[in-house]
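Question: Now follow the chain.
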Amino acid sequence: MRALASRAVLYFIVLSCGISAFSKAGPATDSRLHGGFRNATQAGWIFVHLEGTPSAIGFQHGYLLTPEIEDAKAAIELSLTHEVKHNWADLRVAAEKVLWPGVPQEYREELQGIADGLKARGSKLDVTDLLVMNASLELPYYYDALERRQGKPGDVKIGEHCSAFVATGSYTKDGRIVIGHNIWTDYVTGSRWNMVFDIVPASGRRFLMDGVPGLIHSGDDFGMNDAGILITETTISNFHGFKEQATPEFVRARKAMQYAESIDDFARIMEQGNNGGYANSWLVGDRKTNEIARLELGLKFVTLERTSDGYFVGSNFPVNPQLRAAETDYPNDPNFGDETRHRRWEQLMAENKGRIDVEAGKKFETDHYDVVTKEFDPSERTLCGHIDRSSRGMKGWQDPYAPAGTTQAKVTDSAMAEKMSFAAGMGHPCGLEFHAKQHLAAHPAFAWQASELQDLKANSWIVVAAQSGPESK
């Protein structure tokens, strides 16, 4: 294994050309482009600054990221249609019928702005394509609910996602908040989770988050706003339930990132109109008060825990026993990957009490210790997941050797968050690499992914931060 130096700290540098790099491809003089810019890719990450009205933010997003959005759409389409067994045309109809009515005007304008920006660069993607992309994490819950009503559950794959923690008080080195997260997903879509969005909206708070080109929310939900709210989550494993006449999860997640001023604000926004889609255990911190919380948001059962001295961890395990019994098909298996990761989190929190900082968080999120074998053996049972290396498979990732697992990681603390920044490792920051051609040759069952499956490099950790554009320098 090639070790990566966690001390390597690089910062994105603003391109002096700003938006002028795209002047030959479309209306660079469009007033909606004012203030928006993107940076050169560094260590696998693309930084984009967007600001203004919803329409302007959207237009900048679509115009500056046209090739990346089209690429992300192709990847999401391949993965999602395979997951739910419906074609893209079906998904467009379902999204318009079930989700569009719950999208408020502000975000309709932003999505339309993205479509307008794409059109200005010659793209044929429209607002409904963007709606499906944004809802790609919750549409499987909708289709799963439909199948359950027909008495045939199990045909829709809903993969578990992420390992995360938040700690404060006596558990951290400086007594303030530290929060970290890595994303678990198939490598087809996970390799596109390489955006850093710095957004200054006309209303609400400035916020910094990771994400996917074309999405108005983070998706894996790691971010912060300048009110001091720090946010991440892990999905609730084997969850079932969906409410059609409600607010899409992607809308609530984006609204909370943009408007939450406190933990109570965050919980209220996420609970209001909850449709059950992409059900998560949310880990939240408020650096103003040094308080942290875990909001386990089921459809029927909701649990909010909070503390100013302690920690919360997530690895897809359900916390509330009532939720577990009524809203999940969670297995009774102590060696199930979610449970082994939970035990590893508890070990790490106990062993590192009083010493948790950003550097410790990086080690946690790239940890390969298997509590079952008591060896460093990366698989679906380790905090840094490598399902592609395991012959066991797991529920949600039913196939052994599936090209899936951890595709990036982020960590920040209160001091970094005051500067609107976080440490980010794209690809496999643990040091292992994934090579698509070799994997497909060894495991031809995944040949259907060949058109979109990409290599995942072992990139160094960098620091990303909210920035001002070329015009203000």
